[in-house]
């Protein structure tokens, strides 16, 4: 990721907080078309160029995103049920196979970032079934819908601006597909996190989280930047469990990752 790009987007995210340009949110999709030009003013003030603005204006309200946001039932399951529903045994089995088949790659990630293979594989398996399903929703429309929606507009607006900046710079396509909340790639990064923590793992000069190498290096970098301590434990009560909590706020998800990771690593 080029430093100038990171600095420009950091300025854009800061500018997003300026109240003079804040577009009003709504819990009803009926005003989305009227909201887009208002948000475009906010985006321009944040430094977004015309390619990003065009992606905004071509976006559409995603009712599927709103439905998914209101219906995250699995996070209320017991740990046992959550792991059963999410296929924990399969993730562990496949995680062990993938680690054995590409041991050098995972060793290099641990050497560079301090994060063991089990944690990365547990996240990869949990998020997309190791890349088997990375979503079916347009990233730009999904994240803009969440910025428009009042429920968590403050959280998603910076990510919406980041998505437009990524489109503007050619890192994302206006038609890129991801998950219902605008997450992208093998391990489901929100756009703002792509900018902050994205790594060009395969050395081709771009950060593409639909590339497995880039995605896993970026995930390891995210965890390291959030305070991962190489060699320290990651179960509940141990130093690195707090970092797993940075990845996902749901307690049952955090517990599942820690358990599966330890089983993958043996």
From TrEMBL:
The keyword Signal applies. Residues 1-22 form the signal peptide. Its EC number is 4.2.2.-. Residues 32-235 form the Transglycosylase SLT domain. GO terms for biological process: peptidoglycan catabolic process. Keywords: Lyase, Signal. This is Membrane-bound lytic murein transglycosylase B. PANTHER family: LYTIC MUREIN TRANSGLYCOSYLASE, MEMBRANE-BOUND LYTIC MUREIN TRANSGLYCOSYLASE B. It comes from Palleronia marisminoris. Pfam families: SLT_2. GO terms for molecular function: peptidoglycan lytic transglycosylase activity. The gene is mltB_4.
